[in-house]
Design a protein that fits this description.
It contains 17 helices and 26 strands. About 45% of the residues lie in helices and about 20% in strands. It starts with a helix and ends in a 7-residue tail after the last helix. It is α/β, with parallel strands linked by helices and about 600 residues long. The strands form 8 sheets. Strands 1, 2, 3, 6, 7, 15 and 16 form a 7-stranded mixed sheet that branches. A hairpin with a 4-residue loop joins β11 (about 230-235) and β12. The relative contact order is 0.09. The model has no long low-confidence stretch (mean pLDDT about 90).
Length: about 600
Amino acid sequence: MFKKILYTIALVFFGIFIFLILKNANLNTFIDSVENRTFDLRQSIIIKEGGKKANSDIVIIAVDDATYEYILGNYGEWPLPRDVYANMINYLEKHNPRAIAFDMMFVKSLKSENQADLALINAFKKYNNLFTSMNFDNQSADLRTPPQLPDKLSINIENNSKIDFSDLTYTNCRKILDGIINVTSNIGIINVSRSDDGVLRKMPLIVKYQDKFYPQLALKVGLNYLGENKDTFEIDNNSNLKISDRKIFLDKDGSAIINWYGSAGTYTYIPMYQLIKAVNGEKTELDYDFSNKIIYFGTTAASLFDIKTVPTGKIYPGVEIQATFLNNLIDNNFIRKVDRGYTIALSILLALLIASVVSRVNSAFTASLMSLSTYFIYILISYYAMKFGNMWLEVIYPLIFSILAFTSAYIIKYLIKSRDFELQYKLATTDGLTELYNHRYFQEQIRMQVEQSKRYNTSFSLIIIDIDFFKKFNDTFGHQSGDEVLREVAQTLKRNVRATDIVCRYGGEEMSILLPNTHKEEALSTAQKICDRVASKKFKLFGGKETNVTISLGVSTYPSDGESAVDIIEAADKRLYKAKNNGRNQVR
């Protein structure tokens, strides 16, 4: 019964703990932040062990530090005139690339550069494998009037999930050149999603603006790569965006979790200045076959401020994030995070397993080792699930539940053992009939009283009690009635002494009371009170009868009646027999 109560309390405690976790936003945020770090660690280990290989068909034309210096030295300012980009596009298109994408925004037409802008616009008009970007924000309409965008830039979403895209809904747009918008629909969004710690682990596939959905730049490029020309896509009730034969899992805010291929520099980088020199017919180190490649233009120079922090590195260029995002789409390699409900269920199962181990294994060291091993096995499962199955199994909730289960199981085990010890001790020291301490316990305690009294120069007293004519009483009323009298006399003794006094069954119908720090006069007074209480009490016998019982009592005191346990017992015993011989129902 006691075990059942403890287990019930533990289960209730678990239930309350789960409820508090699910309802406490701050606690959830903290747990999520730690969990995100474990994601970063797993991604880093997977990469160090070889991981997944980046797509070699993706190449980045980078405005790196050397290119930035080259541009300032040869053109005098940044950004470059748009016809320079047009010339690079024309040069690359001769090599038959699969796609060219600009992770750069061509905003505002410069009055002095109309012809340069027109050259770039004509390039977008000419090539259908050419892509560029813009982004949404929440700038006030006082600063910038939210522009209307043509329908051709948006896509239709049939949303059957619980995702409402509220975190990916924007009120304003930083628009690029109207000339580019008018001649092409190959324009994608480059908005990003960062976790609370500032690390970019996921990216939105689609964002919302003026009640319409707009695709990410990498999604636009990926759709072109897959030959997906439709403009209507479905999100199923499991939060999967269906694209061709792929199902891309969207997290609770609508973003896709990226599977990383390495630290910065994973993809082939070509400094843009080398391409500019090649276009201009200058001598250059550029020797690269762009045939059938997906070419991304972007900035990597620290001074141009397009550097992010990702799970695999603190410094990661935004253009390489776009490349990684596209790589995930091509490989169908996005991470799927296990639903929080399943995580809690797994955590409970793991906690129950650990609690079972602790409760069944006697050795604390072995139980601890087995519990650690159980959680370590789960860690390995979560690691390989991410490595081979692209599945994010959370590890912090299971850790919290495991620690709680381990601690609770040990507390319960300790309480059960403590109670069992107390029960065994009680059985070893208590008389089963009267529930008084037994003779063995009496002998231990009287020896202790002698030692303490000697050490501290104090007194203690002993009362030995015998029920008068008890053998005759048993013969007359029967042993069951005799047992009932023994029990009632025992309870009367316990009720009429102090909490520090020790009442024992000495043997047969004899009982004893040890009175620590008690002089003879006080002991005699207590003995007389007990004698009177017993004599005045009506004792109920087996079968409903009632009778009177009397007792005889002998009192001795240390050290006046002896300096050893044997002497004190012998003195009290002699006086008990004097009381019996002098007519009983009295104290001597």
